[in-house]
Amino acid sequence: MGDSPNSTPAPPNSLGKRPHRHRHRHDKQRSTKKQKLLLSSETETCIRIQSIKPDSTRTFCSYTRKQRQHRIRTKSRSQRKWTYSQHHLSNYKDRVVIVSYNILGVENSTKHPELYRDVPPKYLDWEYRKKILCKEVKGYQPSILCFQEVDHFDDLNEILGKDGFRGVYKARGGETCDGCAIFWKPELFTLLHEENIEFERFGLRNNVAQFCVLKMNQDPPFAEATEQRSSRATTSRSLLVGNTHVLYNPKRGDIKLGQMRVLLEKAYELSQEWGCIPTVITGDLNSLPQSAMYQFLASSKLHIHEHDRKEISGQIIPSTYTAYRSPHYMTRHFKNRWTDEEIMLATGSKRSCVKHHLNLCSAYAEVPGSSNVRDEIGEPLATSYHSLFSGTVDYIWHTLDLVPVKVLETLPMHALEKTGGLPSKEWGSDHLAVVCELAFTDEGLEQD
Fold it and tell me: What pTM value is reported for the model?
């Protein structure tokens, strides 16, 4: 389940009524000035939530003029803002907006009341949560949605289907009833291939992962008629999207690492099979940014004997410990050493080094942000927030043939603390969605 809650937004600004025309001139001026300040603040917040793109840029997202005008008129419902890359990316025309979101399974929310002791019952009710969850993600104008802890797929499919989304679902095995789901819009993408992983077949518990190979449709309905297409008319792009929810148990670093190893092996295999296409890996990895698991993803290899088995995910190490690059962390004495069986589960062999062949970057770490919402590595301070946990476990990783244009910041810690824990009135899960816009570089073009 999600050992992480979501963040809460600050209440929207509200404009005061116009002062009566017969009031004292001084009162009128003061009221007018206040109105202007509030209007300026509201407009700035709303504009920052827009996808700003040149006319020549094709962003494959749910976006219409009517929706854009509606968002400008609507007051901001949160403190979340876009942060843009500092690099010049105007030459990268084709883009996708990807959302990864642990939406909190209904069964998990009822089985673990200790995580939500300060949350009013009405905010845990699925009938309430499903509406604000879908409203929230639609506001990000997404191209692709990746959900975890899905145990009411039909409800999501019905609501999002009305907005033109199509989805696929993979449930976990055993007694659990949640799983993962990927949604996309058929008007923007064609599904070329779908594949799933059941980790229990590898002796790695009943978690699952799913993959979709999506091909971009060349002329989306909202493309500008005057757009300079040139070579675009004879090229197309495909994308491999992976989605997973890694085992929660903080003590089973061998299982966690094994699941990620199997997932990355399959992702590389599918990427090669479909022509070395760009790859995105999303999900709740139940691992902190300072952990050995994060190191494995970022550096493509890990020597497991350099890490305590129970600390692979970083969940049971004090939050004040230094990043994985620290030599003190790498050389200290380990209490929980590895057995031969655990090495086999983690690495898939008797060797103590585990590797993968994807060159991955974290979208958030690639776009510098404020220390109010980011840690020293560049990841959000918290993508999950409830009574017993606060930290980052949700990620969007991508290969080097994609580059992040912008990321949606999470909430500052003081804003999260004011909520008393998630879900809340405005946030439908105990996690926050991680969202980014990725652009295709010139590599990876397919010729029709």
Answer: 0.80
For β-strands 238-245 and 279-284, DSSP reports them as parallel
Residue 208 CA to its chain's centroid (Å): 17
Cis peptide bond prior to 423, omega within 30° of 0: yes
Q: Which of 165, 143, 139 has the alpha carbon at shortest distance from 71?
A: 139
Helix H or strand E encompassing 390: strand 389-391
Residue 361: which H helix or E strand, with range?
strand 360-362
Q: What pLDDT digit, counting tens, does each position of 45-76 carry?
A: 332 333 333 334 555 654 444 444 444 333 43
The Cα diameter of the chain in Å comes to 86
| Tens-digit pLDDT profile for residues 285-321 | 999 999 999 999 999 999 999 999 999 999 986 444 4
Which amino acid, 336? N
Give residue 107's Cα distance to chain centre. Answer: 22
Q: How far apart are CA 133 and CA 147, in angstroms?
A: 11
Long-range pairs for 170-177: beta carbons < 8 A, 24 or more residues apart: 170/196, 170/208, 170/209, 170/210, 171/208, 172/206, 172/207, 172/208, 173/198, 173/200, 173/206, 173/208, 174/200, 174/206, 176/107, 176/206, 177/105, 177/107, 177/151
Helix or strand holding residue 111 (H, E): helix 106-111
In this structure, what token pair is assigned to residue 250? 């903080």
> In this structure, what is the dihedral angle of CA atoms 307, 312, 317, 323, given to the nearest 10 degrees?
70
- Altogether, the residues listed in the chain come to a count of 448
Whole-Å CA distances, 391 to 88, 112, 188, 364: 31, 18, 34, 15
